[in-house]
Amino acid sequence: MKNHGTSLVSNIEPGQEVLSVQNISLSFGGVKALTDISFDLVKGEVRAIIGPNGAGKSSMLNVINGFYHPQEGEVFYCGQKRNAMKPHQIAHQGIARTFQNIALFKGMSTLDNIMTGRFTHMKTNVLQHAFWRGPAEQEEIENRLKVEEIIDFLEIQTIRKTPVGRLPYGLQKRVELGRALAAEPVLLLLDEPMAGMNIEEKEDMSRFILDVQEEFGTTIALIEHDMGVVMDISDRVVVLDYGKKIGDGTPDEVRNNQAVIDAYLGVPHE
Amino acid sequence: MSPDFLNTIEVILNGLMAGVMYSLVALGFVLIFKASGIFNYAQGVMALFAAMTLVGFQTGQVPFSHLINAVFGTSIHSFGWTLPAVVAVLLTVVVMILFAILVERLVLKHLVNQEPIILFMATIGLAYFMEGMGDLMWGSEMKILDVGVPQGGSLWLEEFTAGWATEGSTYYGMYIDRLDIVATVVAIVLVISLTLFSQYTRTGRALRAVADDHQAALSVGISLRKIWVIVWAIAGIVAMVAGIMWGAKSGVQFSLSLIALKALPVLILGGFTSIPGAIIGGLIIGVGEKLFEYGVGPLIGGATENWFAYVLALIFLVFRPQGLFGDKIIERV
Ligand SMILES: Nc1ncnc2c1ncn2[C@@H]1O[C@H](COP(=O)(O)OP(=O)(O)O)[C@@H](O)[C@H]1O
Ligand SMILES: [Mg+2]
User: Fold this and answer.
1) Rounded to the nearest whole angstrom, what is the distance from the C-alpha of residue A246 to the centroid of ligand 1?
2) What percentage of chain A carries pLDDT values higher than 90?
3) Could you tell me if the CB of A53 is within 6 A of ligand 1?
4) How far is the CA of A59 from the centre of ligand 1 (A)?
5) Nearest CA residue ID for atom 2, ligand 1
6) C-alpha separations of B325 from A260, B129, B299 in Å
7) Domain A1-94+186-270 sits in which CATH superfamily?
8) pLDDT tens digits for B90-108?
9) Average of per-residue pLDDT values in chain B
């Protein structure tokens, strides 16, 4: 009942590097989205990625989870250089994510959405599903239990059966987090999980992120615009601007970095 | 009960049975459209191909025998056996699965992210290719398909209902084709199994996930290519069931592939992405055309079944273009 990520990460101690990107450059036609970016994520940390709109934050996550293939640079994952891989293969290695613009399965219930998050942990194949109910059914029950744990954790019991398309925005974001958590990821990528939320919702989401870090020891990459939130919940921060890295360090270091102040904190963002 | 009333009931029942067939064909379209956004022009030819293959296996024909004989100057035609229907059906299922794998490898894989119109053109090519392939493998002559389902009306039902009419009136009982009854039962079982499969299995959820959002599906580890193979295989099997029903009724020949045309109005009624829509749309058209023919047909010279479905679809296009179950389309301004 484990995916490949579990074994990959088993010999990495807390505080050791889980993933690093090295000299990543990515462009679309003439647009340089990322230029020579390097940074790492160590096991168990919340690593914020900040920067103004269009800085390349989402592109960075897309490189990490395989949606984008950089023209230059390397990704190291759990101590190994990673070859070019498809996004679904990377999911099987224990990297889960949420999206800046919610990407839930709209027609499906909360429960089913989170159940799809268990995909990489389920091993029975289509023939077993079609004919041979035994093992498939057993697996279904086991994974359903896991999903119920996540539903309890995120306090969304009451919307278990609701088609997610009908949920308010804040709850949709929470269900999307649930789907990513269901994968029991080694590395969790969150692209603006609190965008568009009110203060109360942001506080809830921050609490969930910290709980995930604490309870499961998950390594988390977090893109977020609200500087207060970033300073509160992240261990280290990477700052991007126009596709270049202009700062990297603890929240305090970054806050006092002149280049960051000029480029990011100084200019009004959104 | 008056004979008129009973006759109307009979017409409705017959309509439902015909509708089941339309629903099945439409279902094949919807499955593929939902998963990959492709309008599969080849759906009808898939039904024909499956039916030909089934007959070929059953009667022990050697595939490509014409070709082999022409090249090698031999004259082989038949293995000299006849297979039980069940075995032939299972073999045909295997062929449809292989077909799905080939479609993915040779066509879909190379056309990822293309415009829908290009994918549509590809399926037109596919349709003609399959039609030719079917002829080459099994010969183009019309074939009799017999899977052991008896044709003709159900005598039991006729006798059972004959007494229902008010005394003194002439009523001979309801006439419903036994083949239709069997076909309906098979279709119902098929739809229920598909529903359970898609609701309660990992693969089924993956199918629905891909239908909803490709990126998100990839992000949870679902391989789109695998899902496409599975969807085309299921569509192939659904096509086979439709091909068997239709083929058993009116023989296996080119015109069988035209049942796809009957699915178009069903899709317009039910919406291209709704499975319940395909089923209910098919039933409405089946019942509608039979009732119309029964009630209005005699007044206007009959043969209304040829056009009724299309006119109904046209009316829908004008007044409810999103179909019965689609969301109302509101133009963004
Ligand atoms: N798929 C794409 N095609 C073309 N340009 C893209 C694509 N994705 C991102 N970009 C460009 O890359 C730059 C960085 O975008 P993005 O990573 O979304 O920034 P951020 O998430 O920091 O706001 C922008 O100029 C954007 O237009
Ligand atoms: Mg972004």
Assistant:
1) 18
2) 77
3) yes
4) 6
5) A28
6) 52, 34, 33
7) P-loop containing nucleotide triphosphate hydrolases (3.40.50.300)
8) 999 999 999 999 999 999 8
9) 88
